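Lab notes, practical 5.
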Amino acid sequence: MNNNLLETIKSVGGEPLHLEYHQQRMENSLKSLGCSIRHDLSNLLHPPMDGVYRCRVLYLKEIIKIDYFPYQLSPINSLKLIYCDNLEYSLKYENRDELNKLFNLREDCDDILIVKNSLLTDTSKANIALYDGSKWFTPSAPLLQGTTRARLLDEKKIFEKSLHMSDIKNFSKVAVLNAMVDFCVLKDGIIA
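Output from the prediction step:
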């Protein structure tokens, strides 16, 4: 199995965004694997100066590869609930085979919302937040501790809460959040 780790960073006009959160996750991931090596993202990234790019850093004990891809937002308007109690994705690995299998079950929806042990977790590519009319809440037990999620928690724009599948009816809006989309409210907020 491919155990390479992956970091995806948004760059606008040659400037990688929120690099300190990516650096922290990268260091935490390596430390959890027993690695004391530190890769300094601020010295490694050299994205194109024009436009919006997805910087893809593949790493483990060494930097394996850095790629830059022009980025275009793919709209997400609907999420299909998918149940999977045994999925583990606490580190951002290059290998997404299990997530891709679940994603292929989305039917007519744009993405999936994974339910693990009756708790809402993440979509196939993003953390989520739900709006109760007053505050935005993100699951306290996500599959992956996303960098945008961490930043928005630090900024007190979202708040952690244990979110059960049955709680969906108590919320009026759904947002997806990751490094590339930042915080994107679903237009129709549809969860099927």
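Observations recorded by the TA: Residues 19-32 form the longest helix (14 residues). The chain has a mean pLDDT of 95.
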